[in-house]
Write a structure and sequence with these properties.
heterodimer; A: mainly alpha; two-stranded antiparallel sheet; B: 489 residues; globular
Chain lengths: 529, 489
């Protein structure tokens, strides 16, 4: 067996947390150094993996497999493909910045904080790399406790209830998935031949009847939909995002929401393709509602942090649209957009924190105005982030959203058209916010000091990534391509159900008028494997 | 009586001798040396553990078919001796502080342990009854051990009256089963029931046995004693009782219902459904009533009721027989060990905080994390484990039980769904403790009572147990399954 680099990258943060646990809580500098060192090492390893990953070959690489609880058929199975690679990179990139970020920085109980962030990093990376359902579930649920602490301890005085709401809500969603996972195990074969292994199960489940697939698919879907969140499962989000400390909000929005989307891509769709096909129109509808709802509510917010929180719902809806559309282009776009969203939303939350930190905690639109003059550096950086959120060509947001819409258009025309129209909504509230905060006449007599060089230095990497992906996304897309193809192949309907037959007939009728062949997966008889 | 009989009984014998020795030594020790009794008891328990580990020859019908010495009794003995040892380590300090350190305490605790061990090894219904009484009578006395407090006396009397009543019910159940089958030996019973159909007499008898054991396990609707007794008894007794009584009761349930009564028959589906209903009620009521408890001991009482519900799920689905019975039985064994670590650990932290017989409320925990990070972290860990979140023992315990349930068809599916949903409910009250520990500023600064290294060691063992069972559960899984393979055909 080769060097277990994936295990190393998963458990390195946990080891750092353990080390910090042994330190005295007075030694804040040392604690911060260890935490930063551990998370930077993870990033370094992620970069190594980025170059070591063979994008042309695709598939799962650096696979590690060992029995974990053999009595129950639970395996320790890690693997990395293009999709998990990008998310791993995002995680490795965001966590060190989150530890360094000086805006609303954590100054109390640094030891507990560092431990919690590192434990969270282990859990998140574990989610992205697990190929065994129980292992995945263990990491999935392990994300909750550190996040609960981060929101509850360092958030606003009202954060305790918000943290508990987040925990209860997401756990209530997840327990159905637990039942489904155990059920999958018992359905997977006779005694002795059962498995929790994703790769094994993927080869079995598509042959199962809809009566089996539908409840299992729904159980997984609820768990992931709550985590993302997909409208209407978002009601925990505003409280958690706004009451959490900025670092917590960034981790929630940039990383944890990705775990939910990743779950759809890795588990829900490939495991239950027929059920997924049945529910795809509904799910796409919900995703679109989320896009519009998030944008409209964001436009009505006066609180900057809430505004960014709702804009996050809106953007995540678009990412989900691309996932549900399940075309190679849209799925690539969604995966890339996950990275983009992680970076943009983190940047926006930090920018808001930087502004409100200088205003003594005030963060409504009425508190600011004309900040361009006292804070030219922040204004410039914020403009970049804002334009990336709007998806202006040249920024990373454009590449992701364009691919999502293009890919969706080939499969589900109406949804793509509606989705494209909503991009305008983003522009409305984002530009409006920029105008109110940075232009117009000052509404506050406070003195706003511009960003210090250190603060600029922390935001510059984000700007660089925004333009890099915006201008030259090929290194990322090249590593995604074959993995995405594989997911699409696995998730496409292979066995015709009555519903699909009907759908393909309708499709043929409509297509015949424009004289084009139906896509392979909609032809009667299904696509060959 | 043969040598093999003596070997089979050796752990129990050591505990018996130990209890008597402590009682006698107590007469000769000056009051300031009472801590010696605790050390001697610990040493003796260690000897019993060693003896238990050395037994290799299974002897399913020792003492003329009264006791079964097999892999399952070996597992139960291990768990019960561990409970006794951890309880002793945790309570010594507390007793001194409360002025309760008297030699009888240790003797009674050991006697109660003996009773539980006999229940887990019994091969005859009469032996189950003897074990039940040997377990319970010391517990009645221990509940009233704080003589000066009326609450403690009330707890003792309440526990005694209801407990005596339930013992009578249990005895009557034995009589009915004997009337229906002509035997009280569990193996003979199992053989006979395999060939005959269930008579109403037998059903009634089995029902009464269930009532008697359900009382000890604090299953709904036989749980009403638990909150008051848990609240009134000295906390170190509550800790011991919460775990030992449950271990004994489920040991007996396993012997009688899961191993002796036939599976996959009409009778089995009858009692399976009955236990399933009890399990559902117990999970629901325990978890929902725990939500509104502000007194920590009462909260723990309802939490222990809720855990009895999860354990009962394993008992209920074992009626399906075959592979499910195997999974259910080993999941029960695993759950009991996980429950031991997390419950004793949680009570252990409460013991550190209590000064003079006052009852701790949630408010008393506020802000503790800032002053006592380690004790708070341990308490948070135990709470997270009880809520069933990974990576802790509680997660795999529940995972295992729900796996057994899901292999058992529709009844199991319903129970598993109720189980996971009530687990979500339980997150609320367990994490509320964490909320108070970490996120609430302290109203009054409560001191923590500097504990001896014994109590600290017990907490460390419990915390490690919770983590090891949560991260590397495979060895214990293997043990429970081996235990079973030796017993099930």
């Amino acid at each position: 067996m080769s060097f277990p680099i994936l295990s190393l990258i998963v458990f390195l943060p946990a080891a750092g947390a353990l080390l910090i646990g042994l330190l005295d809580r007075g030694q804040e500098r040392l604690i911060r150094t260890v935490a930063l060192g551990a998370s930077l090492s993870v990033f370094a390893l992620a970069v190594v993996l980025f170059f070591a990953y063979d994008g042309a070959r695709g598939g799962m690489q650096f696979v590690e497999q060992a029995p974990w609880v053999p009595q129950l058929g639970i395996g320790y199975h890690l693997g990395l493909d293009g999709i998990s690679l990008l998310l791993l990179l995002l995680t490795g990139f965001i966590v060190p910045l989150a530890l360094l970020a000086p805006w609303e920085a954590i100054t109390e109980r640094v030891k507990t904080f560092s431990i919690m962030v590192l434990l969270l990093e282990t859990a998140v990376i574990g989610v992205f790399l697990s190929l065994d359902l129980v292992l995945f579930y263990v990491f999935w649920e392990s994300m909750l406790i550190p996040m609960y602490f981060i929101i509850g301890i360092w958030g606003t005085p009202k954060a305790g209830p918000a943290a508990l709401k987040f925990l209860l809500y997401t756990m209530a969603g997840s327990v159905f998935m637990l039942i489904a996972i155990i059920a999958l195990y018992f359905l997977s074969g006779p005694l002795g031949g059962r498995s929790f292994d994703l790769i094994t199960l993927q080869s079995l489940t598509p042959g199962w009847s809809l009566a089996l697939q539908v409840p299992l698919f729904l159980a997984f879907t609820i768990a992931f939909a709550v985590k993302v969140p997909l409208w209407p499962f978002h009601s925990w989000l505003p409280a958690a995002y706004t009451e959490a400390p900025t670092t917590g909000t960034v981790l929630l929005a940039a990383l944890l929401s990705k775990a939910g989307i990743y779950g759809f891509i890795r588990f829900a769709y490939p495991l239950f393709p027929q059920a997924a096909a049945l529910f795809t129109p509904w799910l796409m509808g919900l995703a679109l509602i989320g896009v519009i709802y998030g944008a409209l509510v964001a436009a009505a917010q006066r609180d900057l942090k809430r505004l960014v929180a709702y804009s996050s719902i809106s953007h995540l809806g678009l990412v989900l649209l691309g996932v549900f559309a399940l075309s190679p282009i849209s799925l690539s776009g969604s995966t890339l957009q996950m990275v983009n969203h992680g970076i943009i939303v983190a940047a926006l939350f930090w920018a808001v924190a930087a502004i409100s930190g200088r205003a003594g905690g005030a963060r409504t639109l009425d508190d600011f105005g004309g900040l361009m003059r006292p804070m030219p550096r922040l204004a410039a950086l914020f403009t970049v982030f804002m334009l990336a959120a709007i998806a202006l060509p040249g920024t990373n947001g454009f590449v992701g959203e364009f691919m999502i819409l293009l890919g969706t258009f080939t499969q589900h025309r109406v949804y793509a058209i509606i989705g494209a129209a909503t991009v305008i909504l983003t522009a409305i509230y984002m530009l409006w916010m920029t105008q109110r905060v940075f232009h117009e006449e000052p509404r506050s007599q406070k003195h706003f000091a511009d960003l210090r060089p250190r603060e600029v230095a922390l935001l510059i990497p984000l700007v660089l990534v925004i333009f890099w992906i915006g201008i030259y996304p090929k290194p990322f897309l090249g590593r995604l391509n074959s993995s995405v193809q594989q997911i699409v192949r696995q998730s496409s309907v292979q066995v015709q159900t009555g519903y699909d037959l009907l759908r393909s007939q309708v499709y043929r009728l409509t297509r015949s008028q424009v004289n084009g062949p139906a896509p392979a997966n909609l032809r009667p008889g299904g696509r060959p494997r | 009586m043969t040598t093999s009989d003596l070997i089979a009984l050796s752990p129990e014998l050591i505990v018996t001798v130990l209890a008597l020795l402590v009682l006698v030594l107590d007469l000769f020790l000056p009051p300031e040396r009472k801590a010696w009794l605790s050390r001697i008891s610990l040493l003796g328990l260690l000897a019993a553990l060693v003896a238990n580990a050395l037994i290799h020859e299974p002897n399913p019908q020792a003492w003329q078919g009264m006791l079964a010495s097999d892999a399952i009794s070996g597992y139960f003995n291990f768990v019960m001796l561990l409970i006794a040892a951890l309880s002793l380590m945790l309570s010594s300090d507390y007793l001194q502080r409360q002025g309760l350190e008297r030699g009888e305490y240790y003797a009674l605790l050991l006697t109660s342990t003996l009773g539980a061990m006999l229940m887990g090894s019994s091969a005859d219904l009469l032996m189950v009854f003897l074990g039940l009484e040997t377990l319970s009578i010391p517990l009645y006395i221990l509940s009233g051990f704080a003589r000066g407090q009326s609450r403690s006396q009330e707890a003792s009397l309440k526990y005694f009256l209801l407990g005596a009543f339930s013992s009578a019910v249990f005895l009557y159940g034995i009589a009915l089963v004997y009337g229906a089958t002509g035997t009280t030996n569990l193996a003979a019973l199992s053989q006979q029931l395999g060939t005959m159909s269930a008579s109403p007499l037998l059903l009634a008898g089995a029902g009464l046995l269930l009532v008697g054991l359900g009382f000890k396990a604090a299953a709904v609707p036989f749980h009403t004693w638990a909150p008051d007794v848990y609240e009134g008894a000295p906390t170190s007794v509550t800790a011991f009782m919460a775990v030992m009584a449950k271990a004994g009761a489920f040991g007996a349930l396993l012997r009688v219902f899961m191993l002796a009564l036939p599976q996959q028959s009409q009778l089995a589906s009858d009692w399976g459904l009955l236990v399933g209903v009890l399990a559902a009620l117990t999970m629901i009521l325990g978890n929902f009533v725990a939500l509104v408890q502000l007194d920590l001991k009462r909260m723990m009482a309802y939490s222990s009721i809720a855990h009895a519900g999860y354990l009962l799920v394993a008992v209920a689905v074992s009626a399906a027989g075959g592979e499910t019975a195997g999974l259910a039985t080993s999941s029960l064994l695993f759950y009991l060990l996980a429950y031991t670590f997390m419950t004793l650990g949680a009570f252990g932290v409460l013991l550190l905080l209590e000064r003079q017989g006052e009852n701790l409320a949630l408010n008393d925990l506020a802000g503790l994390a800032l002053r006592h990070p380690l004790a708070s972290a341990a308490m948070a860990l135990f709470m997270i484990s009880m809520a069933g979140l990974p990576p802790t023992a509680g997660f795999f315990a529940k995972f295992y039980v729900f796996s057994a349930a899901l292999s058992a068809g529709n009844l199991g599916l319903v129970l598993a769904l109720i189980g996971v949903l009530t687990s979500v409910v339980s997150v609320y009250y367990y994490l509320r403790v964490v909320y108070y520990l970490y996120m609430r500023p302290a109203a009054v600064e409560r001191p923590i009572y500097a504990s001896s290294s014994w109590a600290t060691a017990a907490l460390v063992i419990a915390a490690l147990g919770v983590l090891v069972l949560g991260i590397l559960p495979a060895p214990v899984f293997a043990w429970t399954q081996q235990a079973l393979a030796l017993v099930l055909p």
